[in-house]
């Protein structure tokens, strides 16, 4: 069926955008690209497809949330360095400036033979090319004792939004000298330094407001991103506050109890006041519904991010198994630009350029103490491979760290502009 | 009066009115040389100095603001120079204290030096190493680096540059940030000089060094040509 256009129009801005665009151009003489997921991968892809396609493709973005809350910088909100409202971004500009059909609905199924996406509200949206950028879901049972139904008491706070607000409220309500616990995720997962930046930001908050409180990290991994930098920072700024229990100390043999608010490690029961459970992760549900996954993730070609299972589908960001790039907003944004160029070339005959990717992940350890890690990447038959890389050094001077932090603030403005404005 | 002109007028009024700084402290050029180290990434000074990312600083004191042949200045500085403003010691001191407070449109990525004494040391060094205003004339002939000139002279593939630029816009906003500058509308010679300096490591920044190391001459030329076309 053909969907009534009004079903698509989520906002008044979207309505204005569609009226401003010539309806004839939408009469399906041009190829249709449907993008599922309006985060760093999907919003960027939609914007670049519409901007560079300049009317040669019809772009629809399906995203259930009217307001996108970035996951990145959510930790800075926990630490008191960033306002919650500044994490929010709307889709009005994508509709009004670029004429993208923004549909606020859940995509619940993909019929790959008919080339349609089914919406939760019932109708199906036809596509010539489909972009899936759904982010992550959690692996059931990855944390013994925890399920999504426990997220009200033991929040994951790992998809942005109200879960992050809840975690902040729980930290504020901790008794003096209480215990904040985190169950860190196994590899691979979204934002490799994210859990450890979060530890830093919680420690910052507690040092200022609850200095006798303790932080307990249960970690199933031997090592983690920027480990030397974080451990140096925790020693310097939060001496004695953070205890991390790795797999050698029982960090891979634990369970949680959300009712009792306990974490049991190697049989030893710890009472905790806050428990942030970041479970094991997999591609967002729509990738499974489309049946383009191998294990937990959707394998893609490194040359253009198309699915190795269905070349009419592109997978971006966290959901993709692409090789060496970390699962990050920066990576998703980088992949989206390569993919948009490739999709436009295949649908309209425009010029195709070789894939080249980049990523930088910044983390804040304490006030004006920022660190970064990053790399450039290229495509190979086996997957995306790293060309060159860098990481902040231990023992750097204060001005270097402060400049790194300030640059991360500029990056935040730049990437959200690159996605939405 | 332009914004820059208004800033300058305000500056001189402030300087005259402020009793605490009627005369600037005498600086020590030896201490200034150490303070100059981070400046060297962009500004050459002394024998053989040529324009890099920033203009060379020979003969800076008493030189007109925003006017050195072979270098394309931001509109704010060029306007100030066209209105007759020169780099007096007082003007330099104010600029170094907070470049963007003085000239909001400056492309110089530097937050400034808080210590009045350090600013005096730095200015003393620049006067000693860069010589008097006449010295500027002697180096104008050399004002473009040959590697930069060779890349700038390549025939640029602008559509390729536009594609490559997508990598830049993840961090560089069109309007510029407080610390990551806008790179739109840069003169090709300035853009190429910056990328060459990052690529060969004379200008240090972990992200930019890594990004530039995989760029060939043709790619730098394509990027420079693209960014010159957009505002």
Automatic annotation (TrEMBL), chain A:
InterPro entries, from UniProt?
FAD/NAD-bd_sf (IPR036188), FAD/NAD-binding_dom (IPR023753), FAD/NAD-linked_Rdtase_dimer_sf (IPR016156), FCSD_central (IPR049386), FlavoCytC_S_DH_flav-bd (IPR015323), FlavoCytC_S_DH_flav-bd_sf (IPR037092), SQRD (IPR052541), TAT_signal (IPR006311)
| GO terms assigned for molecular function | flavin adenine dinucleotide binding; oxidoreductase activity
Q: Which Gene3D superfamilies match?
A: FAD/NAD(P)-binding domain, Flavocytochrome c sulphide dehydrogenase, flavin-binding domain
> Where in the numbering of this chain does the Flavocytochrome c sulphide dehydrogenase flavin-binding domain appear?
355-420
What UniProt keywords apply to this chain's record, in alphabetical order?
Answer: FAD, Flavoprotein, Signal
Q: Where is the signal peptide?
A: 1-27
- Protein source organism: Roseicyclus mahoneyensis
Q: Does the keyword Signal apply?
A: yes
Q: Indicate the segments forming the Sulfide dehydrogenase [flavocytochrome c] flavoprotein chain central domain, all copies.
A: 165-279
Q: Does the keyword Isomerase apply?
A: no
Q: Which SUPFAM superfamilies match?
A: FAD/NAD(P)-binding domain, FAD/NAD-linked reductases, dimerisation (C-terminal) domain
Q: Which residues form the FAD/NAD(P)-binding domain?
A: 32-145
Q: Name one Pfam family in it.
A: FCSD_central
Q: What is the protein name given in its UniProt record?
A: Cytochrome-dependent sulfide dehydrogenase (Flavoprotein)
From TrEMBL, chain B:
Pfam families linked to this entry? Cytochrom_C
Domain of life of the native organism: Bacteria
Question: Per UniProt, what is one GO molecular function of this protein?
Answer: metal ion binding
Kindly list the residue ranges recorded as spanning the membrane.
Answer: none
Task: Write the signal peptide boundaries.
Answer: 1-25
Keywords of this entry = Electron transport, Heme, Iron, Metal-binding, Signal, Transport
The Cytochrome c domain extends over 27-130, 156-231
Supply the name of the protein. Answer: Cytochrome c
Q: Which organism is it from?
A: Roseicyclus mahoneyensis
